[in-house]
Amino acid sequence: MMGSTHALTGWCAGLALAPAIGAGSVHQALAFAATTAGFALLPDLDHPHARASKLLGPITGLVCWLLRHTSAALYKVTKGPRDERGRGSHRHLSHTLLFAIGLGAATTYGTRAGGWYVVAGVVLFALLLAADALGDWLLLVAGGGVLWWALTASAAAELSQLTGWLGIAVAVGCFVHCLGDALTESGCPFLFPVPIAGETWYELRPPAFLRFRTGKGVEKFLIVPVFTVLAVLLVPGAWAGLVGLFAEPTVAAGG
Q: Is 235 exposed, middle or buried (0-12, 13-18, 19+ CB in 10 A)?
């Protein structure tokens, strides 16, 4: 799945989930959704040519190197008798439910320990990831909105309310990435280490007629347009505003 599609699906998942975790204001919902959108790209840090791996130059490059070698070492000692002969450095460790839960738990601990400063850092990093996939316009628009919000008196309090909950956004973003890759022809081993049919890294995928090829017609002309529309409609107040815009004006009754 393309990076832009991962980011779009992560954004929509975040907006849909935000009310359930108590992100009541528009700012909180957007911060939560920006986090899911950004971290829906993070599992591809296990590929040296991925946009996420090049985002912060040598910093993300080092993270990519560490993740690839850790994944390869883990694959070597855990692969089952029917697992493929590859190195296991790409689409393995970072593409598992275990990784999503672990990173989410680490984020929860970090935000609780560090407070709203850490929350702001996580959201900013996620925003940079998402903007890198969707375009600089997102950084300009969302970044300008975040800067304006940061200057208001309520920013710190609203960010503090996300402390602890942001780990859910991180985990959901990674999981959405895995789910998207599972729908492609390559599949995704996100149930590791559960052994299935002799494979520890069993690549889950739907029946052949439901799979699609990355960057081809189904993704470009069906999935991307649908989630682009949802990305707007799921913003708090957007649907009500749209209905109000097209609603027929009420004719006042005569006296």
A: middle
Structure tokens at 123: 């959201």
Radius of gyration of the chain (CA): 20
Max Cα–Cα distance, the chain, nearest Å: 85
Q: pLDDT tens digits, residue range 38-94?
A: 999 999 999 999 888 998 899 999 999 999 999 999 999 999 999 988 899 999 999
Long-range residue pairs from 83-89, CB within 8 A, at least 24 positions apart, any chain: 83/198, 83/199, 83/200, 83/201, 84/201, 88/201, 89/46
Cα separation of 235 and 32, whole Å?
11
Residue 77 contacts by C-beta under 8 Å, 6 or more apart in sequence?
A: none
How far is the C-alpha of 9 from the C-alpha of 227, rounded, in Å?
6
- Single out the residue of 116, 111, 228 nearest to residue 169, CA to CA: 111
Closest to 112 measured CA to CA, from 30, 31, 34, 167:
167
- pTM, rounded to two decimals: 0.86
Contact in structure between 130 and 41 (CB atoms under 8 Å): yes
Report how far residue 99's alpha carbon sits from residue 105's, in angstroms, rounded to the nearest whole number. 10
Q: What percentage of the chain's residues is helix, strand, coil (to nearest 5)?
A: 65, 0, 30
* CA dist., res. 82 & res. 199, Å (int): 5
What is d(CA 59, CA 16) in angstroms, rounded to the nearest whole number? 32
